[in-house]
Design brief:
The structure is a homodimer of 189-residue chains.
Chain A lengths: L2 H10 L3 H8 L3 E5 L4 E3 L7 E7 L2 E7 L2 E8 L4 E2 L2 H6 L6 E4 L3 E7 H10 L2 H26 L2 H11 L3 H4 L2 H8 L3 H12 L1
Helix pairs in contact in A: 1-2, 8-9
Chain A binds a DNA duplex (30 and 30 nucleotides) through helix 9.
Chain lengths: 189, 189
DNA sequence: GCGCGGTCTTGATAAAAATCAAGAAATCAA
DNA sequence: TTGATTTCTTGATTTTTATCAAGACCGCGC
């Protein structure tokens, strides 16, 4: 069973036979380390699900890069705003390692809705889940210090700190690489 | 035409006759200043749309209140996670002034889907729009200083600063009331 | 192996923001 | 109206975080 099947089955309690039907709309895609899955400003018409590897979502602000999110196995790779509203992408998505994705085109995405009644509900729940996760993240910025946000991320995704350059993680936390370095040292001792 | 009709019509380009059908599922609700529309920990099974008045979404963290959002005319009043996943609410929603809402129950919400085919797409676009707005807000915390976030909010919702206690706005920006006060003085001079 | 670019750490310093404390101003209720 | 409460501002100080600068480390290609 692929990550994608597991995700749909477990997250939403969709039975295996329906999951199979949904899965068929997705195509496998391999990326090499450094490849761009998406470039800001371009129209994107596909939604990807990460089977393996690591991707970084980032944007250029002023003269610095802001890493908005790092996606690993089980996350989606998409600029949802671009995908849903057929607008140019607002950020880049680049492979930090070789990656395997499951990808669906906007066209096929619309076809799912006709073939699988369950999909409508699934779609709402999927976005709703992402929405709630973002709400939590907002709250973490309103309620927590840099150190607390670091602790939280470290407890939620400990593996990340061994997999990607730390300055990307720092940016994702909204702190500088130097501060992250000091927080790490503090934590060890 | 109510705010809600205008919202649905303009945001999603739904024709007026279909808007009328959707509107019928909503019931008017009046709140008095200080009333709770939603209490954290309770099950909520309704989605509200603000016709008039001001509501504050907040939660208790440690010993302090975190104001997550302030909703005025044209915003929704709902804990989406609670509404979609039938979970206890994660925050409070309280009326800061007398309010008029348009409210739909979870039950009627599901009925819309049967009556109006267009609704499915509308729902996805609605949540997608909220999602994108939250993404922007995350980025504002990663890329901007307290002063820049203040400037941004002040340019986006200038009226807010005359309508609600400033310490709620400070909390929503992730800063202290004292800092907000100083940023305001700085801006004037 | 060697050099090189990128990464990470560390220290010194500066800037930003929080905290603590006090008082003024506004609001609200009796 | 008056007193109490909340809100807002201001100043002094501390804490947190960023910035600047330097050097160590590490992996990779030649």
């Amino acid at each position: 069973m692929t990550e994608l099947e597991g995700y749909i089955h477990h997250s939403f309690g969709i039975p295996h036979n329906e999951v199979d039907e949904i899965i068929r709309f997705f195509q496998p895609l391999k990326l090499r380390k450094g490849d761009y899955y998406l470039k800001a400003g371009h129209r994107s018409d596909r939604l990807g699900f990460v089977q393996s590897g690591i991707l970084r979502e980032f944007l250029d602000a002023d003269n610095k890069e802001i890493t908005k999110w790092i996606s690993t196995k089980g996350y989606f790779a998409v600029d949802l705003h671009s995908f849903l509203f057929e607008q140019p992408a607002r950020w880049h998505i680049q492979a930090l390692t070789d990656c395997e994705l499951w990808v669906i085109s906007g066209h096929d995405y619309k076809r799912i809705q006709q073939v699988i009644p369950e999909w409508q509900r699934l779609e709402t729940l999927f976005i709703g889940k992402c929405f709630a996760a973002l709400e939590d993240r907002i709250v973490s910025h309103l309620a927590l210090s840099a150190e607390e946000r670091f602790q939280l991320l470290h407890s939620q995704r400990p593996e990340l700190f061994n997999l990607v350059p730390l300055h990307y993680i720092a940016s994702m936390l909204g702190i500088t690489p130097e501060t992250l370095s000091r927080l790490r040292r503090k934590q060890v001792s």
